[in-house]
């Protein structure tokens, strides 16, 4: 992208954009996909239950998983206004009627190193019967990523009675974007399609032959990480508010007429709609993990004020990609009184991905998109499982007792007050919730 060097604000935005790509321009042009995949690896250690939050324990259902190709029913417009066909690959976890041989997930790191991960789900198992239909949860990865980046959440929520669909966002995956030659190639599509893909995915599950008789299309939740969080905030009612400067910067466009058209294309609400009032009523809760966009105030404040869906924001207080102050800006302006901000002390941006596969340990570029400098990633994953289940059980299933797991406040550190140590947060054992802080409206 060519920028006017005399515009300090634009230059600073580009510095932030460079951080978003994790130093992608430094990747060697010789990086290539590994010719073979090593044996499936297990990413999780057998920690005792006492050191993990209680709602991170597996549920009563066995878990099935399907890979589904979902095509938009009609052509859609790309960022340039051309009509194009668009399809998504979905990984869908669900309560299974029985357990068979466990499957694996195959993906690749940002530099193209292919890896295989052992799953706790059975491929294409029959779906479980239940007295009530299963709510739907949609999971949306960041830029870049892949649909199983948060497979632990998909398996976990499915074991507790949800159908969970995670998206490979076309143009925005590790496989689609060649960082060595064109690291920004998928970003305009990401800005345009992230919320649209989330809404389309929910509708696809509700209409899918295998799932439609077992899901409750009136109850749904959305989970988004980074750019997925940018989409999730819009999906539940936030309207984008790109100006000429930000529309040009984040799409690499210089022509004023083209910028005007791009800005018009981007500035939508709730999955490409014109108004936030067109938000699907099925959305009952949103989990926004390190959501991007608030640091540039890319959302219309009034539309944020009008969001009725409870949003749980999760942010590292040292997030140098989405910016902690930007995430807090989103929380402060979100209208739902049941929204909350969970701060992870001494964390940066990687609060959501699964632990790094061994193939990522060959370079900081790959490893840097998985690990946290000061946190055990498995503990972060367990924390996400706990609060995601509490959020969805409380607001999607209406299990009011589980709302109490969200009704914690202040610091989790149990610092003595007047010589007396406070009780631990609900769902955490004594001494095992260190490093968290919850803020409510």
UniProtKB/TrEMBL annotation:
GO biological process terms on file: lipid catabolic process
Highest taxon, organism lineage: Bacteria
Signal sequence, renumbered to the chain: 1-39
GO MF entry, a single one: 1-alkyl-2-acetylglycerophosphocholine esterase activity
Gene3D superfamilies xrefs: alpha/beta hydrolase (3.40.50.1820)
Keyword Cytoplasm in annotation: no
Protein name: Acetylhydrolase
Organism: Alteromonas marina
């Amino acid at each position: 992208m060519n920028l006017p060097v005399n515009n300090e604000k634009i230059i600073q935005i580009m510095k932030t954009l460079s951080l978003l790509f994790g130093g992608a321009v430094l990747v060697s042009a010789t990086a290539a996909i590994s010719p073979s995949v090593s044996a499936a690896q297990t990413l999780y250690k057998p920690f005792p239950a006492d050191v993990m939050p209680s709602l991170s324990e597996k549920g009563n259902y066995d878990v099935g998983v399907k890979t589904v190709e979902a095509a938009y029913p009609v052509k859609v417009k790309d960022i340039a206004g051309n009509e194009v066909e668009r399809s998504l690959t979905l990984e869908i976890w669900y309560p299974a009627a029985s357990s068979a041989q466990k499957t694996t997930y195959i993906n690749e790191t940002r530099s193209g190193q292919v890896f295989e991960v052992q799953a706790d789900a059975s491929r294409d198992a029959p779906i479980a019967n239940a007295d009530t239909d299963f709510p739907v949860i949609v999971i949306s990865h960041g830029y870049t990523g892949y649909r199983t980046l948060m497979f632990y959440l998909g398996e976990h929520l499915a074991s507790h009675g949800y159908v969970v669909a995670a998206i490979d966002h076309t143009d925005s995956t590790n496989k689609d974007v060649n960082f060595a030659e064109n690291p920004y190639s998928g970003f305009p599509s990401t800005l345009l399609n992230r919320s649209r893909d989330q809404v389309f995915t929910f509708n696809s599950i509700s209409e899918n032959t295998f799932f439609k008789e077992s899901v409750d299309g009136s109850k749904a939740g959305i989970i988004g990480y980074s750019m997925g969080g940018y989409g999730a905030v819009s999906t539940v009612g936030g309207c984008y508010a790109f100006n000429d400067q930000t529309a040009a910067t984040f799409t690499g466009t210089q022509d004023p007429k083209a910028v005007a058209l791009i800005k018009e294309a981007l500035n939508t609400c709730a999955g490409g709609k014109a108004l936030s009032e067109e938000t699907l009523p099925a959305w009952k809760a949103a989990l926004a993990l390190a959501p991007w966009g608030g640091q540039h105030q890319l959302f219309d404040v009034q539309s944020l004020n009008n969001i009725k869906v409870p949003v749980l924001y999760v942010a590292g207080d040292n997030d140098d990609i989405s910016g902690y102050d930007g995430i807090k800006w989103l929380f402060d302006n979100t209208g739902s009184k049941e929204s909350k901000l969970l701060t992870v002390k001494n964390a940066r941006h990687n609060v959501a991905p699964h632990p790094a596969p061994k193939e990522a340990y060959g370079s900081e570029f790959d490893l840097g998109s998985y690990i946290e400098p000061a946190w055990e990633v498995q503990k972060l994953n367990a924390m996400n499982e706990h609060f995601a289940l509490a959020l969805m059980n409380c607001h999607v299933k209406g299990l009011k007792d589980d709302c109490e797991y969200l009704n914690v406040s202040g610091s989790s550190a149990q610092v003595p007050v007047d010589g007396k140590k406070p009780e631990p947060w609900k769902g955490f054992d004594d001494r095992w919730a260190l490093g968290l802080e919850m803020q409510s409206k």
